[in-house]
Design goal:
- Chains A, B: Its EC number is 2.7.1.4.
- Chains A, B: It comes from Liquorilactobacillus oeni DSM 19972.
- Chains A, B: It is an enzyme of class 2 (transferase).
- Two copies of one chain form a homodimer.
- Chain A is of the alpha/beta class.
- Chain A folds into two domains: 102 residues, Nucleotidyltransferase, domain 5; 147 residues, 2-Layer Sandwich (Nucleotidyltransferase, domain 5).
- Chain A is built from nine helices and twelve strands.
- Chain A has a five-stranded mixed sheet with strand order 3-2-1-4-7, with helices on both faces. In chain A, strands 10-9-8-11-12 form a five-stranded mixed sheet, with helices on both faces.
- In chain A, a hairpin with a 3-residue loop joins strand 8 and strand 9.
- In chain A, helix 6 packs across helix 7.
- Chain A is globular.
- The interface between A and B is large, with 44 and 44 residues.
Chain lengths: 290, 290
Amino acid sequence: MLVGSVEAGGTKFVCAIGDEDYRVKDSTKFPTTTPEETLDKVVKYFEKFNIDALSIASFGPLEIKKNSPKYGYITNTPKPHWSDTDFVGYIQRKLKIPIFWTTDVNGSAYGEYVMSTLTNEKINSLVYYTIGTGVGGGAIINGEFVGSAGHPEMGHVLLKRHPDDLDFEGICPFHKDCLEGLVSGPTFEARLHKNGKDVSLDDPVWDIMAYYIAQAAMQVSLILRPDKIVFGGGVANKSLLRKVRLELKTMINDYLPLPKLENYITLPAIKNNGSATLGNFALAVKLLRA
Amino acid sequence: MLVGSVEAGGTKFVCAIGDEDYRVKDSTKFPTTTPEETLDKVVKYFEKFNIDALSIASFGPLEIKKNSPKYGYITNTPKPHWSDTDFVGYIQRKLKIPIFWTTDVNGSAYGEYVMSTLTNEKINSLVYYTIGTGVGGGAIINGEFVGSAGHPEMGHVLLKRHPDDLDFEGICPFHKDCLEGLVSGPTFEARLHKNGKDVSLDDPVWDIMAYYIAQAAMQVSLILRPDKIVFGGGVANKSLLRKVRLELKTMINDYLPLPKLENYITLPAIKNNGSATLGNFALAVKLLRA
């Protein structure tokens, strides 16, 4: 059995071929340009292999309701050219195989969930946040994605402001100081006028970031009671997550029994940004076995 | 078929007998005193009827994990005498029937969910908040309760503070200015030195309340994408929910497609605080049919 993975990001696409044990047999990446050009590259890549099913984890927002006439579309994205793109329909007409369709963060969440079960962690639920150019989250409970009227948009929750950050307006075009507006990668530029990779790990801005990210972890802990929360994306790092654990411990104030925080708040177990690819392989295999 | 419902609150217990169509055949209520006295009254009440199953929706926190040796217990509650009470074990030893066990808000959520399906609303998921002496929430997705490592504790999320409310410290003993600490019934006493029922509906405090409650609705909308959010409890009222809808619309700023707000943010469809009783009847019937 061969399955395909498309991780469709706003900047680049990563396509890969895997087997039923989720091993990568081949992969490629290319920049995200227009839908026509980019989706044509996707089709041409997979035509070289005889895959049985494909899973697509895409930047959004997406229509994921099966009974919608727009199922399989990228809907009203701010990304130029991509609004109202029939992603799944286009690929399916060309490749004529079963396709699973979900968000990029759901794909990563599923990859991390599968990896946890493969390594014998006893978990039934997992939340995955990406903190990068944007902020988003996906959640799985008992193997199923959370989200009934649509997929989650966990990056846009409002938060209690850090006392040393009251003057920063936030950069989300929709909500200003929501989570994304306070901790996404471009906030480094907005707060400190330099790129995030040039910000020293002992800069106090990381305490502010940790305060907000811990609140996101607290919200999702109180609402979903997950077994594990994984933080990926370019902004997440070991030092930041150490601070997030400390902030979360202080904030939650022993109100809930939480798992050991080192196991509860973690970086992705799958290295080199491979979470979504593994997730896609597993989702494509699941689709074939359904 | 006859089933039983226990709605176990911190102030009073409501016990009821229902049939498979969820009609109330009999009911009683009594104050919550010590566990021994109160649970004995529960047993004595149900011994008068020949019920086939019972569902208990209790104040918490509860142990709901089936594989825990403390399953069926009220755990570390601040309520005097009730910590570490083997609620389900005690009742089961006396009545020897199948018992479903969940939180008060989950019971209410289930009642409202069942009522929505009975009235042919097309919903797959629902969140129920109570805003009363405390604040809590329960959630259902596709007929199943949300909460893997434990039940939700949605009342304790942190929030962006209202600009006219920055000096109010909040009254939650664990988190000060979490949702419960900012909008539960006793906050009227703390902010205005009078009882909530004496606060006029045009007092500006309701705008502050609505601002926080709308944030809770926004969080849960972004994280769970439910089809409906119901607000019960003594503080919830029509005028407040009108304000909550307006605040939510402003805050979310068309970022998500939401259902019509009049149908999305509502008071309980079941009148006279009957949501948990109906939910319990349905859960007990479901237990028998499982």
